[in-house]
Amino acid sequence: MLGSSVRSRVVFLALVAAVAASSYSGSVALAGHMSGWNHDHSKAGIPPRPSGLKELNDVFGQRCSDRSNNARSWWPHADWDPFGAGKYVEYHTYLARNIGFNIRNHINAAHRDGALYPGIGGYNCRLIDGSTSWSVHSWGAAVDTNWQRNPRYQDHWNGRGFDGQNYGTYIPDVWRGGFPGHRFFWGLSWPTAPDPMHFQYVTNY
After folding, report:
1. How many domains in the chain?
2. 181 in a domain, yes or no?
3. What CA–CA distance (Å, rounded) separates 172 from 189?
4. Is 180 among the domain residues?
5. Which among 122, 128, 127 is positioned nearest to 93, based on CA atoms?
6. What pLDDT digit, counting tens, does each position of 147-185 carry?
7. Residue 107 lies in a domain
8. Which of 34, 110, 177, 198 supports an S-S bond with 181, CB 3.0-4.6 Å?
């Protein structure tokens, strides 16, 4: 009986040790989540932002060109059909480092992918809705973010993400402004036609 009891105790302790080791390795992996990543605030990471149509053309070139959608990154919860699926968001190569490396990784490294919400989209060769002017999306210089909850003409930002939490203006703060933002102009700033989903890399257009 004693021998059987000792064997049972040894087996039990071995199982405890195995579970503890598994938990530890998982914790290490979690603690190391993107631990080697840092923002790139160099001119390559956050390049000069144009102002007005002439500079937009000078920097980004011909609208609807191959370069306008030749960079992309994967965004979870981006697609509205099927609702909540991830997808690639495409944009101009001039913004590849800023969007793909800085902004997308900023959200991922902070464990805030849940703040994203369908839909999210970049390049689109089209006119501005209700206008004869070309959309900044046709240069691949704009990304609409969480548009299902932030439609055009809405006068505020709805920060509730796919996970149901309210993140406030976390997502706009990552896109807009100077450090620690990434210098995108926020469409909510337009006084007559606010567009809270819209973030573009040009001013005065």
Report:
1. 2
2. yes
3. 12
4. yes
5. 122
6. 999 999 999 999 999 999 999 999 999 999 777 689 999
7. yes
8. 177
